Amino acid sequence: MNSKSALTIFVFVIAVGFYSCNNDSQNTLDKTEQTNNSNAHPKLILTAQGVKDIRAQLGTIPIFDKTLATVKEEVDAEIASGIHMPIPKDYSGGYSHDRHKRNFVVLQKAGVLYQILDDEKYAKYVKDMLMQYEAMYKTLPVHPKTRSYARGKLFWQCLNDSNWLAYVSQAYDCIYNYLSEDERQQLETNLFRPFADYISVENPQFYNRVHNHSTWGNAAVGMIGLVMDDDELVQRALYGIKDANLDANAKDNDGGFINKDGKAGFLANLEEPFSPDGYYTEGPYYQRYAMYPFLIFGEALQNVKPELEIFKYKDSVLLKSVNALLQLSDAKGNFFPLNDGQKGMSTKTNALVSAVDITYHFGNQDAGLLSVAKAQDKVMLDDTGLSVALGLKENKEEPFSKTSINLSDGSDGDEGGVAILRAKNEDLTLVFKYAAQGLSHGHYDKLSFSLYDKTDEVLQDYGLARYVNIEQKGGGNYLKENKTWAKQTIAHNTLTINETSHFNGKYDVGSQHHSVLHYFSSEDETIQVVSAKEDNAYPGSELLRTMALIYDEDLGKPFILDIMKVNSITKNQYDLPFYYFGQVLSTNFEYETPKTLNVLGSKNGFQHVYLEAKSKKLSNNGQFSWMHQNKFYSLTTITNPNDELLFTRIGANDPDFNLRRDPAIQLRRKNTDNTVFVSVIESHGNYSPVTELATNSRSEIKELKVLLDTEDYTAITIATVNDKTKIFITANTNASKKVKHAVEINGTSYNWTGTHYYK
Amino acid sequence: MNSKSALTIFVFVIAVGFYSCNNDSQNTLDKTEQTNNSNAHPKLILTAQGVKDIRAQLGTIPIFDKTLATVKEEVDAEIASGIHMPIPKDYSGGYSHDRHKRNFVVLQKAGVLYQILDDEKYAKYVKDMLMQYEAMYKTLPVHPKTRSYARGKLFWQCLNDSNWLAYVSQAYDCIYNYLSEDERQQLETNLFRPFADYISVENPQFYNRVHNHSTWGNAAVGMIGLVMDDDELVQRALYGIKDANLDANAKDNDGGFINKDGKAGFLANLEEPFSPDGYYTEGPYYQRYAMYPFLIFGEALQNVKPELEIFKYKDSVLLKSVNALLQLSDAKGNFFPLNDGQKGMSTKTNALVSAVDITYHFGNQDAGLLSVAKAQDKVMLDDTGLSVALGLKENKEEPFSKTSINLSDGSDGDEGGVAILRAKNEDLTLVFKYAAQGLSHGHYDKLSFSLYDKTDEVLQDYGLARYVNIEQKGGGNYLKENKTWAKQTIAHNTLTINETSHFNGKYDVGSQHHSVLHYFSSEDETIQVVSAKEDNAYPGSELLRTMALIYDEDLGKPFILDIMKVNSITKNQYDLPFYYFGQVLSTNFEYETPKTLNVLGSKNGFQHVYLEAKSKKLSNNGQFSWMHQNKFYSLTTITNPNDELLFTRIGANDPDFNLRRDPAIQLRRKNTDNTVFVSVIESHGNYSPVTELATNSRSEIKELKVLLDTEDYTAITIATVNDKTKIFITANTNASKKVKHAVEINGTSYNWTGTHYYK
């Protein structure tokens, strides 16, 4: 079925849209002609024509020349240190793992150097190492470490073996003509073909699924197939293993389904996890990881099989996804750690270098991408990197435009999404998640958000509980606290009901549902709003969260208005935490601190939280100010007399110190059915430890009030300390942008057209 | 007695040394001639000749021109906003406080602008504001806030009033000739003279002591005296109030003695707190604060009374102190937070701009100071700033040399000190404190240390418990936790015995003692050592701590060897904490974590610490690795089977969240008299969240052993994972650099000359 749907799409693809190549048709045509001869090598990533062009420009293209010099220095040092071929034995972070990882990276680079510099020493180095791999691989047993659901041979998991093959196929392509036919025969028979078979037909549970692991496997098999001119492998890459009968209920190490619906192959992996907007359902951290195989195999297919028009597939989704990924980063270029994401991963990662260069070259030569490439300070050493280097040389770059954007989730774009609201050139950025489960790396955090200012996280998403590649922490793999803490709802800035996670933390249930966009509005810079519903996370309870980024000259700095409306058929305990960083500055309420710290609960993440303080009597607004990295922030939230504001800190029941000791302020409301939570979050001032001056250290908010809260409308007033009052009304049922509303509140009529009112 | 000793020193001063002016005698002579006419104004900081020179160079001196433009913009904005003269009522951080603070800063700048730009609008602005102060001050009562031992009138403490006068006297000097004699008479009679009297003769408990507060008072009174040509005030500034009979046992708000020994006046303040090396006994944070009055009044005295040769006083201690202060900063220029010091205060503070410019101009034109000035990116708008601007214009700057340095404490340099050991261009910096009490801002932390690498604190000194000028936190003043936590011994990286602070936390006792240098050796870059003794902190116990910074090519990166040797007549409990930052990475021992967090003790700071985990059985070495800001660190320490390694965290009994939740690993040894603690601290690797590669994530240390520990010698072997073994032997009794030692250990003879052996 996969092959059929893919072919259908090939026929209907229309070369229009932002990323289409139609304004570059002459170039495209040239490339097609140059690369159609499948016997010329290199042809996979570097092309024979590209090598000619690069050699002609060398010395006049600064960023390319610089990258080349760095790579040459690196490879020369490796050649000088000799070939290291340890017997595989370690997990990530161990010597044999790191060494073989290093080897495939160096092999790819050495192949490129051979082509560009025309120096045989690099070809010989590649050949010698490949021959050693050939000698070792033909008798190599399955890797001795047993933790993976799909053990590799060079590495503890097939995933890493696939990484190896995707890189090494490029090296092989580069020295293909340098080798004799016998040598090629020897490598292909004893190393490459069995290697490709091992990670595919011998491990269908790894290969034949929709998952970032499989994408790597598909790309690896396809790329070596393209180099070897082995169409069976290329077909297996594109469409998966025919007749692989996998248990529809089997799961991998992360608890994800192996293959519930039988979809497989590169095209299915392109089809399924990407929404039409280019959002990748696992989130940006895994998208970044998947980008390299997606785009490098895309580039290879475009070079060797241009008739597939892979970059136009699904309305150019591959190229769109690069824009989506760049948008999913904070002002420093760090990706938002949605779902399992490790903080600090950024647009500077190598996978984004290839993504940006390939998108620039095969897409629309977007000048904004040049400024991203400039910040990356390196390019691909191939035809695409040459394009970027020439663009930069000609000073064509413009700032990459970070905007407010709503990214749909789901292969058809109808399974929720992620909205990003930005104000004042990223002075404040709201990330609002109302997406689908996100496969096995998904967290149970419907309608959650995180908040960023220009330099810091203001309210954090915890990210994953893992120290990637740091062997001392659980072999560099996922820690058990990833499941017991990081994935749980209470670990996120969203609502937990009755100390239970969304969908009861059950992956099978969560995977069947997604939140639903109510409306998204970013046209008016004064007030940008996103609103979404979640009716399935807690059966019997309906959540509607409406978040506005208000940047109103009347009120000063941009701030967030957060309205979480709940309808429930039962009386519940609600917990709404806000995970801040830094030091408590002040509160407008009294609180008591216990002598000893006890855990907040017994399960679903609550067992990992200490209670550091609890509010005494609250008035109608609870206000909490804090200080972090010399900046002042405040949360103001509407409170009932029986509400509690809890000061919590992560770290309980953490016998290996796997969790960060980060704090939260948590609003708790008990024994309540229908209710609404209304809060404002400000980043309002800063402190200089050098001048010792505090600027705007106090909240601008005097009072928040619910003016009206019905099934159809919620109206909030925001009064500031400067005695200005604003009213925000959101339509809770009718999200049409065209409908006219008329509401009377306390004798005043409010009339407007569209989703919301603000004045 | 002060006047007598000061006069004696004036006679004996010899113009030699690093900071002398003898290579600049022509310039000095010129200045003397120019400024001897005490009727010419300005004369105090700006001089009439300086103004001429500056006007001639304007537009050709970039850093000066830039500073001038910034100041002009700032003052023009203030002039446009009008004059604000609130009735004094607030503590630090409140409006009236901040406004009057702003006023004096702007007045000083406006005065300078009048002189340099020759634009009467600035003179008029200064005059108008001074007249409003005159109108208000003559009937102004004592400030309504009562917390200070010396309440001011414009501010809640005389200290801030003194700040005001020190700045405003400069403004007055600048517009002196612009005013009519009547106007001057009016201001001097109703404002300046009574103001000077109020902060001096009416508040002798503030003015007549050796303390940074008094230095401000003395400078303020002296500067207005110099402008007004009022020699009585100048004499009062230099020598204090005659016959002020103060209670020798009275204390200030910080618990410091007001005036135990009757010393007072600017010269006494210069004499007493500065050691001959220029170390200021309160530590760099307060020295920085004191620098401005010391140097600005020094400049004023040099300009108006050059015959005093103030910059040669006490072997040029004023200028030496600037070098000492610059050395007391980390690689980022942040001052080490010894005693009460707020982190983040740096060499970029305005007080250091004046200090650096004045030192450059009146000192030896040290080219290293120009690079500090360049980083400050501004200069004084006076003769000294002109010198610096011309130096930078002529590209004379050289890197400021940060070195290993031993700074003695005490007015005669015989009351302990602070040693700084630096390796590899500040890749690792050890700060070792064996100083005197440090007056009322001193902490009880004999033989404590802190450790820095190029970008971070590795093992921290907590600093003060205060949020300076952030009114929400205790009015911006010292918090009670400063006494109950920050000053206590357990808050520091040194030895606490029997859960009691040094000197039992008694200021009267601590002030009578200081640690004693055993030896300091920084000649050999491979191994730099400082060793000091403390026999009084715990009567009956003698502490000898020897710390080596080893940078041995055989072993790789620099690391710290720490030997704390204790002899005691009683069996004790010892606690030796190491305050790290970040996440626990690994240990070579098992530990147990409690379900609830309990406090570690009941008093002396222990009540502020939670116990997060405790080691089970230890072997002969306890090793602990952690990760912070993507760097890897390890502590390896020799342990006995009955020792405990405690994982602690600050924050218990902290009802207002005044303390940071920082962790420590703490070695506890019970029921022991004589013993030795031996540890190695490494900064050994780093992690990139972008490449996700961990480099050198593990300790290089395999084992530490005590080979010998006698009264005379302690010998340690350091074995690395690469099977290299080094021996360090320190002489515990004879610290002569010339004496020959011969020690036989396990049949091997070790022979060397000097304090220590390393091979």
Automatic annotation (TrEMBL), chains A, B:
PROSITE patterns: PROKAR_LIPOPROTEIN. It is found in: Periplasm. Keywords: Lyase, Periplasm, Signal. GO terms for molecular function: lyase activity. Its main location: periplasm. Pfam families: Alginate_lyase (PF05426), Hepar_II_III_C (PF07940). Residues 110-330 form the Alginate lyase domain. Transmembrane segments: none annotated. InterPro entries: Alginate_lyase_dom, Chondroitin_lyas, Hepar_II_III_C. Residues 409-679 form the Heparinase II/III-like C-terminal domain. SUPFAM superfamilies: Chondroitin AC/alginate lyase (SSF48230). GO terms for cellular component: periplasmic space. PANTHER family: HEPARIN-SULFATE LYASE. This is Alginate lyase family protein. It comes from Seonamhaeicola algicola.
